[in-house]
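tool=predict chain=A
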Amino acid sequence: MPTILTVDDSRMIRKAVTRVLQKFQCRIVEAEDGAVGLAQTVVEKPDLIILDYNMPVMDGVEMLKHLRNDPAIKSTKVIFLTANSGPEIMRMAVSLGVRDYILKPFNDDDLISKISRQVSLIPL
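tool=predict ok
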């Protein structure tokens, strides 16, 4: 059963992702910013991180940089979930190994499709 970490400063977005994923056999962990997300990654060793770009304390790119510099967690799969789709942000994310991205607001089917390309989602 995969562990999926959703990192977003919006509680509403975290709950929306959790609601979609509750239909599948997976463990869901939430974090409200990049600093908490990074700490959760070290402890939980998620199979996939759904990561927002624009957050207080530590944004998604900064979290990615720390993630990629830590040998114990640097290979963790990451999907960006963001309202910011500027080319510079996307290039930075890709250069840091982001597997895919989803634009907010997202639809459930698109989220499931992109997540299932990274981890096995088995319906309940």
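The beta strands are 3-7, 27-31, 48-51, 77-82, 100-103. The two ends are 11 Å apart (CA to CA).
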